[in-house]
Amino acid sequence: MTSIGQALVVLALATGWALHVHSLRRRLERSRHDPLTGLWTRYGWTRRAEQVIRRRPRAVVLLADLDGFKAVNDAHGHAAGDAVLVAAGARLTAWCGAHGVAGRLGGDEFVAVVDGDARLDDRLAELAELLRQPVEHQGVRLIVGASIGAARLSELPERTLEDALKAADQAMYQVKGRTRRGRRLLTPALAALRGLPQRMRLAA
């Protein structure tokens, strides 16, 4: 084989390998995104959340679970449920803003990491109200509630993402079920929430 022929073979092999690597990367990237909502999956979200908490010492991790989601699925079908999930994902992403990262862990459970501030309680209440806004689907108004648990990294004994997720999960399930018509009760006022430790705060 001539030197030119050898070069062409090497070039063909290199091109084929590059295309293969590119294809693998695209498949891996797609696997990090939820195909329904477009949010990061657990794996993709975890990698980005770790970056956020390293850069932002005031970071807050939250978990949100949609109350009444199963009833929507049962009454109106999976397409209606999907519409609710897509809307919830879009609303959570908008709420997170440029410096936050939202993800979907599966089912009707969502996760996010954001930079904390003095308005966190109010912001959680705003998110809860946002998530319970009706979703229009084929002429039907679909309404779900939301249970939200949040944990500030700065208030944890071990400031790790794993511990923050555990604390947020505990906060969410300690209050889950205290709803009326799918809505988390905020009365008598948000001041009542401010009286609790941050890991116990919620809004819905």
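Above is the first protein from milestone M3; the second protein from the same milestone is given next.
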Amino acid sequence: MRFKTLMAVLFAALIIIFSLQNAEITDVDFLFWKVSMSRVLIILGSFGIGVLVGILVSLKKKVM
């Protein structure tokens, strides 16, 4: 359990460092929307959504 926690913290730190080094403004096109936002927000938002999906998938497996 401790190894998993250490790896999760290390991976999260790498994601944060990577995203902070990519702070330029980027256009995001999704269906009919076009938004200009910082790459930091895009990277961290994508990471957050991925974590949330992973948690939801793991919860479903435990219930069944």
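Note on the second protein: The longest helix spans residues 39-63.
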